[in-house]
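Quick one: Cell division protein FtsL from Marseilla massiliensis, structure tokens please.
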Amino acid sequence: MSDENIIKEEKQQPLEDDRHKEPAPSQLKEAIREQATEEDALPSAGDTLRKILGGDFLTTEVIRRQIGVIIIIAVFTMVYISNRYNCQQDLIEIDHLKTELKDAKYKALASSSELTEMCRESNVLDMLKNNKDSVLKIPTQPPYIITVPENE
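--- reply ---
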């Protein structure tokens, strides 16, 4: 072997040894720090349907920027649901009150017709005949017509 071949082998030898060496602890710490960052890559301009459906666009940065909008949407959703619940409760109460009103009208109509029936002259006369304690009697004479002359 020539001197040149020996020099080449010596140069190659340390290179092979470097591959099998473990990296220094400072290099490991640096690599871990780079991988452990919370920030995701910024979304590209070419968001496709696959990325949206896959959830790839929901990065930490996007969520941080849109947290106000998300909170407003949540509040409006709760207001919408509570408003709908209150409206349904009001409609149930209105239906209940309508049925009560209908029942009250029927009762008033029934009592009014009973009162009309009891106030008829024939029924009043029958009640007077049947009641022994009554001092009222049926008149036997027609009513008198009193005429008062006018003074001129």
